[in-house]
From TrEMBL:
<comment type="similarity">
    <text>Belongs to the SusD family.</text>
</comment>
<dbReference type="InterPro" id="IPR033985">
    <property type="entry name" value="SusD-like_N"/>
</dbReference>
<dbReference type="Pfam" id="PF07980">
    <property type="entry name" value="SusD_RagB"/>
</dbReference>
<dbReference type="InterPro" id="IPR012944">
    <property type="entry name" value="SusD_RagB_dom"/>
</dbReference>
<dbReference type="Pfam" id="PF14322">
    <property type="entry name" value="SusD-like_3"/>
</dbReference>
<feature type="domain" description="RagB/SusD">
    <location>
        <begin position="321"/>
        <end position="465"/>
    </location>
</feature>
<keyword id="KW-0998">Cell outer membrane</keyword>
<dbReference type="InterPro" id="IPR011990">
    <property type="entry name" value="TPR-like_helical_dom_sf"/>
</dbReference>
<feature type="domain" description="SusD-like N-terminal">
    <location>
        <begin position="103"/>
        <end position="228"/>
    </location>
</feature>
<protein>
    <submittedName>
        <fullName>RagB/SusD domain-containing protein</fullName>
    </submittedName>
</protein>
<dbReference type="GO" id="GO:0009279">
    <property type="term" value="C:cell outer membrane"/>
</dbReference>
<keyword id="KW-0732">Signal</keyword>
<keyword id="KW-0472">Membrane</keyword>
Length: 465
């Protein structure tokens, strides 16, 4: 593919296929032009066209990359890479490659994940630049789109650095800059993410109504800032940002576990809109087993066995299918809709308030405020039908309980388990016990070999690869 500077923005509906097709570029700084191209200058003279440009970004996020629940998304392979899913397909499938830890720097899925994500970032930057340079858009639309752009750019870079380590932080569509861009360390990436999120906050709406949280809000930005503080073990910031969301009466945990992943869930902070009015989140189609044995993935037996007796999440969020030999397989059943319904019932939940209770619990525990930490853990446990933890000041007991709650609450949701294993610094201990071929350097994926050849400034390769 020839090197080109993107001067065009891709619109959804009649151009959305071009957006998806053109993700197969040779490097993340190359983005092909759709056949029906509309110049940026035209798009950003009209509020509706500008909003449609950002809608194309959201459609891409739902279809591919770190935030996608689709078969091509990272959610499935990261769960197989850690200790949640077992692969049953051929050794060449993406899930099997990650499950078997046979990935390499030349693995197609790794290259695609990198390229797709940077293509998404590139298109986000195109929206930000188009909005900033427009003198025709209304101030309301300009603020909203810029806020969404900064938020999305931060979140995607956060996933990249959590997965690959040192990475480029791309803030421009300038090809001459991007073709030789270097890497930043994780702490530097975090700093850039914070800057983008803090820039986004005053531009975003405070909240959106239940069932319509398909765009980022201030609450979504606070949630990502809280997650970053959790990763960095900055417990004061973790408390600050988690409190901002939990204190908002519009964001409440659903008492009924079967309502958590419905589009009208009050605990949903941000979710992605499905493809059409009768479509549902991809996760039901990806995970639900209609036949057994599985042809792609199912939950690991040791994961099932680790649920505490009486945990209602096991009944509500895990389905099962038995084959002709009477062997039972288990699958994630958080999303109940396999395909379409008369109207959409389930949206793909990217951020939800339960995560903030778990982040705040750890912050309280680490700061020695054990009673408050226990109360937050018990909020999650009690909703799942489990008895409250007894009061204790033993930090090890409380952290182990918290780890189990995160495992049972957030399983198969966009890599939480993989990133948690690293956060608690027990990835090697856990993974070696479950996958003998695990190596310490597997805590990061390799940088795509093709990218290192095209841009030497991305060297060195991650250790071990």
């Amino acid at each position: 593919m020839k090197n080109t500077i993107l001067k065009y923005i891709i619109l959804p509906n009649f151009l959305i296929l071009s957006l998806l097709i053109n993700n197969s570029c040779d490097r993340f700084t190359e983005v092909g032009l759709p056949k029906n191209q509309i110049t940026r200058e035209v798009v950003f003279k009209d509020d509706q066209l500008a909003k449609s440009a950002m809608a194309g970004v959201y459609r891409s996020l739902d279809e591919q990359g770190f935030l996608s629940g689709a078969p091509s998304g990272a959610q499935l392979v990261l769960a197989a890479y850690a200790d949640e899913l077992q692969a049953y397909g051929s050794a060449t499938t993406d899930a099997a490659i990650f499950y078997n830890l046979s990935h390499m720097a030349t693995t197609d899925k790794i290259k695609n994940l990198w390229t797709i994500t940077y293509t998404q970032i590139y298109n986000i930057n195109a929206v930000i630049e188009g909005v900033e340079n427009s003198d025709s858009l209304s101030s309301e639309v300009k603020n909203r789109l810029k806020g969404e752009g900064y938020f999305l750019r931060a979140l995607l870079h956060l996933y990249l650095t959590q997965t690959f380590g040192s990475i480029p932080y791309v803030t421009s569509t300038n090809y001459q800059v991007n073709q030789s861009i270097g890497k930043l360390g994780t702490s530097q990436v975090y700093a850039q993410c914070k800057t983008d999120l803090e820039t986004a906050v005053p531009l975003l709406p405070a909240t959106l109504a239940v069932g319509n949280r398909v765009y980022p809000t201030k609450m979504a930005a606070y949630t990502v800032l809280a997650r970053m503080a959790y990763y960095e073990k900055n417990w004061d910031s973790a408390l600050q940002y988690s409190n901002l969301v939990i204190a908002d009466v519009q964001y409440k945990m659903e008492a009924d576990l079967n309502k958590v992943f419905l589009k009208d869930s009050s605990g949903s902070i941000w979710h992605l809109l499905p493809f059409g009015a009768t479509y549902n989140a991809y996760q039901g189609n990806v995970f639900i087993l209609n036949t057994a044995p599985p042809t792609n993935v199912a939950l690991r037996q040791d994961f099932i066995d680790e649920f505490e007796t009486g945990d209602q999440r096991k009944a509500a969020w895990i389905g099962q299918k038995t084959d002709a030999q009477n062997k039972t397989y288990y699958y994630p059943y958080k999303y109940k809709q396999y395909y379409t319904s008369p109207t959409s019932l389930e949206y793909s939940v990217i951020l939800r308030v339960e995560e903030l209770y778990l982040i705040r619990a750890e912050a309280y525990i680490k700061k020695g405020q054990y009673d408050l930490g226990i109360a937050d853990i018990n909020t999650i446990r009690n909703r799942a039908g489990l008895a409250s933890l007894a009061n204790t000041t033993d930090q090890n007991i409380l952290i182990n309980a918290l780890i189990q709650e995160r495992r049972s609450e957030l399983f198969t949701e966009f890599g939480h388990r993989f990133y948690d294993l690293k956060h608690y610094d027990f990835a090697d201990v856990i993974m070696i016990s479950k996958k003998g071929q695990w190596r310490p350097y597997f805590k990061l994926l390799p940088l795509p070999a093709s990218e290192l050849l095209l841009n030497p400034n991305l060297n060195p390769q991650n250790d071990g690869y």
